[in-house]
Amino acid sequence: MLLNEIVEANQFAWDIVMAIGTTHREPPRTPKPVPRMKPAATELTPLHVRRAREKQSHRGGTGTRGANTAMPSCGHVQS
């Protein structure tokens, strides 16, 4: 009895597949990623200039820290 129900369900599914029809289409593909564009070189704004100057002063350039400044910590050493 259980086997008969399985056969009927299988036939029912097969009929649905045949009713839809077999179409030969390509399997779905993952779309290709869009190439990343580097931002265009922008002109230096006063904020960029100020930030660059601040970075220079923190690296030990001439300026506000004095002659006997401490070396930067090992975690933030830049070459």
From TrEMBL:
<feature type="region of interest" description="Disordered">
    <location>
        <begin position="24"/>
        <end position="79"/>
    </location>
</feature>
<feature type="compositionally biased region" description="Basic residues">
    <location>
        <begin position="48"/>
        <end position="58"/>
    </location>
</feature>
<protein>
    <submittedName>
        <fullName>Uncharacterized protein</fullName>
    </submittedName>
</protein>
